[in-house]
Each structure stands twice: as C-alpha cells, then as structure tokens.
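Long-time lurker, first post. I've been practising inverse folding by hand and with some scripts of my own, and I keep getting stuck on stretches where the structure tokens seem ambiguous. Below is the full token string for one chain I'm working on. Before anyone asks, I'm not after the true native sequence, just a reasonable design that respects the backbone. If someone could post their per-position residues I'd love to compare against what I wrote down in my notebook.
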C-alpha cells in the first residue's frame, strides 16, 4: 500500500512539466498574496548611511587633552570664570583668589598678569581694567587711585639693589653640583625654579593640585661651607629673568672681600633661575647688617654670604 503524501501530485506534475510551461502554485502558497520585494539600490542614501555606520565604530566624543584648564581654585576641568565655587564668592573674596593664585585680574588668565594683558575689553559695568566678576571689590578702589603725573622723579625706581646669591644646587641622583643665580624674595610664599634649569639639571618632579614641584638642596658658593638647606620649589615658566633694566655703575662690594659675598657680582644682570621665598628666609638669614656706603643700600648677613638690598639714591624724606 502506498502512503498518500499531501501535494505529492503537484510535485510529480512539476517533474514532468516542461521548462517553458508556467509553474503551478502549491496548495500552501495558493492563497498567499504576492508581495513585491523591495531591493534598495546600491546608491540609495539609506544604504550609504548604513554602510558608513557599520564601517566606522561609534566613539564617544571627548575633549582633547589641551582643553584641560585645571582650575586653580577647585582643580576641576574648567576656566576660573566658570567655576561655581568662584562665582559663589563675594567680589572681595574673588579678588583675593585672583591675586593669590596668580591670575590676570582683567581676563582671569594664568599666562600673564594685568599689566601685560592683551585684552582690549574690561569690566562690562564700569569699563575699568578688571574682570566683571571682580566688580565691587574694595581692593580695586585702592588700585585705581588718581596719582599725579610727574615728569622728573626725584629718584629712579629701578636703581634698587635686590638680594641675589650664587648657590650650589645638588639633588638625589645628580652628579656633582650646578651653580645657579638666585634671588632672595621674602614676599614670595614659596620657592621657585625655572623650567629651563629643571630640565637642564635633570631633576625629578611631582604633581600637587595641578602644579609641578621639585626638591633640591641649596648650599653657599663657598666650597668649604657645610651649611645646606633642602628646598621644595615650584617649577615655573616665568624664570629665568633679568632683574635690572639698566646697567648699575655703583659698586656696593668695595668694603667687602669676595669670599664674604653671596653673589660676587651683585650688580650684574645675569639671569635668575631660582627664587628663594619666605619658606626659606628664616633659615637663610643671620643677624647683622651694615651700610654699603651707597644711598640707602644695606648689606645683610646670610648663610649664603652678604647680600645687598635698598635704593642706590637716597629716598626723599618728609
């Protein structure tokens, strides 16, 4: 007995059908509507868009590294003017933040200070040379004083000796020592070293609150001295710099031996690579000072030798 298969007659008939005769529909597809097949062309916009997205993986758009502002107040990734913590401060506090962190009070940039600001705009409220966020700070009234212009000053402001010293720099992993010129600045809150000297000496650095620091040891230029001081210094681009705009002809060293001087040429204009701040001043200073015989210049005794400070021409006395 032969089993009956559904649609077997259709399959047998199709075998005997000639190639030119039309195909007979099967029972399953007899009542199914014929749907047109949509084949998008190779040049359709949908296919081009799909091929591009398949060929290129999706990546999250991120800011490049040079967008890092490193806010000096909260150390976040934004400019100081966009800092919410800065905006919540009073104008008085904002001014103190700008001055303490080394920002330009006109445009709030860290690359320069207000006297060198290239911006042509100022406060949008009073048009003075300060940022709008600083408007209302009482310190600005002290800066914007009406000063009478004089054509011939009684003395030259830049003819002033500042204490300088030639120091020996040593550090861990450093062979021997290097001699650098330093300025002793009691008003500086921290010691500093130029980026050029940092690279040249091959010092090690560390990062703290968005700033880079290094550690080295300072000794007098006299090789027979056993005094030394370990210094943590901020690495900055503002050094080296020259401290005198004009040559100084007066010689304050005429009453001192070369051995006793911290800087053998204190009136020279060789670059300053190290700034020893108030964090080192108490350890460097020694008791005793004497008049240098030039104007109001005094010779101060320090662990590094005698340094000179004061105006060359006598200050006018009231």
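-- Answer (accepted) --
I ran through it position by position. Result:
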């Amino acid at each position: 007995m032969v089993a009956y298969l559904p649609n077997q007659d259709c399959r047998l008939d199709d075998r005997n059908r000639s190639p030119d005769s039309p195909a007979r529909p099967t029972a399953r597809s007899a009542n199914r509507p014929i749907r047109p097949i949509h084949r998008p062309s190779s040049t359709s916009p949908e296919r081009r868009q799909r091929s591009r997205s398949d060929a290129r993986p999706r990546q999250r758009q991120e800011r490049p590294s040079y967008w890092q502002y490193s806010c000096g107040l909260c150390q976040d990734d934004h400019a100081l003017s966009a800092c919410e913590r800065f905006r919540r401060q009073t104008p008085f506090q904002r001014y103190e933040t700008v001055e303490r962190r080394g920002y330009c009070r006109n445009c709030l940039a860290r690359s320069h200070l207000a006297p060198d600001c290239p911006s042509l705009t100022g406060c949008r409220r009073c048009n003075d040379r300060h940022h709008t966020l600083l408007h209302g700070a009482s310190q600005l009234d002290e800066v914007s004083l009406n000063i009478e212009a004089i054509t011939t000053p009684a003395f030259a402001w830049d003819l002033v000796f500042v204490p300088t010293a030639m120091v020996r720099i040593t550090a861990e992993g450093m062979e021997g020592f290097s001699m650098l010129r330093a300025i002793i600045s009691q008003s500086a809150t921290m010691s500093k070293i130029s980026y050029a000297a940092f690279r040249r000496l091959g010092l090690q650095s560390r990062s703290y609150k968005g700033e880079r620091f290094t550690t080295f040891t300072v000794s007098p230029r006299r090789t027979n001295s056993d005094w030394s001081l370990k210094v943590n210094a901020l690495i900055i681009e503002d050094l080296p710099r020259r401290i005198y705009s004009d040559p100084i002809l007066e010689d304050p060293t005429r009453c001192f031996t070369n051995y006793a001087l911290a800087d053998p040429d204190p009136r020279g204009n060789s670059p300053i690579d190290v700034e020893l701040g108030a964090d080192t001043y108490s350890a460097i200073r020694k008791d005793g000072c004497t008049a240098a015989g030039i104007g109001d210049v005094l010779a101060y005794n320090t662990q590094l030798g005698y340094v000179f400070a004061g105006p060359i021409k006598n200050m006018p006395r009231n």
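A couple of notes from the structure itself: Residues 80-134 form one domain. Residues 45-55 form the longest helix (11 residues). Happy to go over any region you disagree with.
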